[in-house]
Design brief:
single chain, 508 residues, alpha/beta, Rossmann fold, 3 domains, 14 strands, 12% strand
């Protein structure tokens, strides 16, 4: 099942004055209490399994090399064939452990569950390696002492590693870092059946935070199978912005098409996985049309745009490449700092409050380009062409975007990415209207971490946002980037940015 993402459209003004910052919604006391509870940062089970596999690959190779160094090297010297066998056996062991299903969180937590399967998989790998060497007539090419020593030492090392890892994983689980925080949309009979289905899972990693439903009549009771109703779907949007939510399960029947579409229109702006539970639908698709959460069939509606290994890779890319860029442009930054100090009084840097990932308020660093007495850290007044508040040096660094270079420090801190939707200032007005009133779906651009440069900027949509059409074009480009993200796309945008900066007609 696929649901098209609604494109951003220019909406008529609501007449609300002031800012494009989201107005905090008042939550019920119970919802507010749950949202304010301290929640540990989540660890992706996919990334955890991958890291454990890489470590175990290294441990197997290292153990084989150490046994080789003790038993073989003193008499035979270094033999490259041994190292090739160590790599092959290590790769085969990791694959065997995957087939043995001991990379799941449940397996990693339980010694009983994983150690027996690990020993069996390790033994099978060695038996297959011995069989291959026998039939290939290489049995006499390798030391039997090395083979036996590697098997025993490798098993001991893997056992010790898994015992220590099990204690660490249980600690993370107790802290809530390996659970998925779930909210259910839709009460009534379908919602109650979904809650009971989740509770029936013996080793579920789901923790239900609450139920949200727009209905307030008898069809949506205040408590659903022991889980409290926390508010409406609009309350859910605010709830998700205030606490960690990993999964939204919509428990509405497919026949309620209008209600499902209404829910989707509200939920698509959130940076979470959204699934439509199909546990009670009479209309059944082919099995491959479903994905499963435990034993519960679900239809995928929206995925978190960047998750698991993609998130790790993008974060590493930001910090490594961002650090290299910072070193490369440091002479320019030093020269800019000196010029700013000589040109006008006041600090070299200033911080501006902007909206970041999931509408969180962040403070970004910039070189000061305005006269000190006209400092505007809230960006309540947009800089326009010929603005008298801009200093002589400020006009140049704004034209060339040198004033944005200190945001590389935000990248290293993790507030920004190198590439992503540009973060807008909280109080920058557009004809005295909220920006999410001007462009429907505006906040969907905050489903990923904002960036120093982006797809909109290299396509000419930089500078002052003084018309609804400019804002709409920027949001459209931002949403296109989010829906089509890849590391190659990031590289292309990053490489294209210096060329785009040569076009300065919109920068002042």
């Amino acid at each position: 099942m696929s649901i098209a993402v609604p494109p951003p459209v220019v909406s008529p003004a609501s007449g609300r004055p002031g800012t494009h910052s989201p107005v905090p919604r008042e939550l019920s006391p119970l919802a507010a209490a749950i949202a304010d509870e301290p929640v540990a940062e989540a660890i992706s089970p996919v990334v955890l399994a991958g890291v454990v596999g890489l470590i175990e690959f290294g441990l197997v190779v290292l153990t084989g090399s150490l046994v080789h160094a003790v038993w073989v090297y003193p008499t035979e010297g270094f033999e490259g064939a041994y190292f090739l066998v160590e790599l092959a056996v290590a790769a085969s062991a990791v694959i065997a452990f995957q087939f043995a299903d001991i990379y799941t969180v449940a397996a990693l937590r339980s010694h009983v569950h994983q150690l027996g399967r690990l020993a069996l998989a390790w033994t099978v790998v060695f038996l297959l390696a011995l069989a291959i060497s026998f039939f290939a007539k290489y049995a006499d090419a390798f030391s039997r002492v090395w083979t036996a020593g590697w098997y025993v030492a490798g098993l001991a090392v893997l056992f010790a590693w898994r015992i220590g890892l099990g204690a660490l994983v249980r600690h993370w689980a107790d802290d809530g870092r390996l659970i998925r925080r779930v909210v259910i949309v839709g009460g009534g009979r379908e919602g109650e059946a979904l809650v009971r289905a989740i509770d029936a899972e013996a080793h579920s990693d789901l923790r239900i935070c609450g139920v949200f439903d727009d209905r307030s009549d008898d069809r949506s009771p205040p408590v659903l199978a022991g889980v409290p109703k926390l508010g409406t779907v609009d309350d859910l949007v605010e709830f998700t912005r205030r606490t960690r939510v990993d999964l939204v399960l919509v428990s509405l029947p497919l026949t309620a098409e209008e209600r499902v579409l209404q829910m989707v229109k509200k939920l698509w702006v959130l940076p979470v996985d959204v699934r439509l539970a199909a546990h009670m639908n009479r209309l059944r698709f082919r099995p491959r049309a479903y994905s499963y959460i435990g034993n519960i069939p679900v239809l995928d509606i929206f995925d978190k745009p960047i998750a698991d290994w993609n998130l790790v890779i993008k974060s590493l890319f930001d910090r490594v490449v961002g650090g290299l860029i910072l070193l490369a442009v440091s002479p320019i930054m030093i020269a800019a700092a000196i010029a700013i100090k000589l040109d006008s009084r006041g600090p070299v840097f200033f911080k501006q409050r902007r909206l970041g990932f999931n509408n969180e308020v962040i403070e970004v660093f910039k070189f000061r380009s305005l006269h000190h007495e006209h400092a505007d850290p809230e960006a309540r007044r947009v800089v326009t062409k010929g603005d008298s508040r801009v200093t002589r040096v400020g006009r140049f660094i704004r034209k060339t975007s040198i004033d944005e270079l200190p945001q590389l420090f935000n990248v290293l801190r993790g507030d920004l990415s190198l590439v992503g939707p540009r973060p807008h200032a909280i109080h920058a007005p557009l004809a005295d209207k909220l920006w999410d009133d001007v462009v429907d779906g505006y906040f969907a651009r905050h489903r990923v971490k904002p960036g120093i440069t982006g797809w909109a900027q290299i396509n000419g949509w930089r500078g002052e946002l003084d018309t609804p059409e400019k804002l709409q074009q920027r949001v459209e480009h931002d949403l296109y980037y989010i829906e089509n993200w890849s590391m190659l796309f990031d590289l292309y945008i990053l490489i294209s940015t210096p060329i785009a900066l040569l076009k300065t007609e919109n920068a002042y």
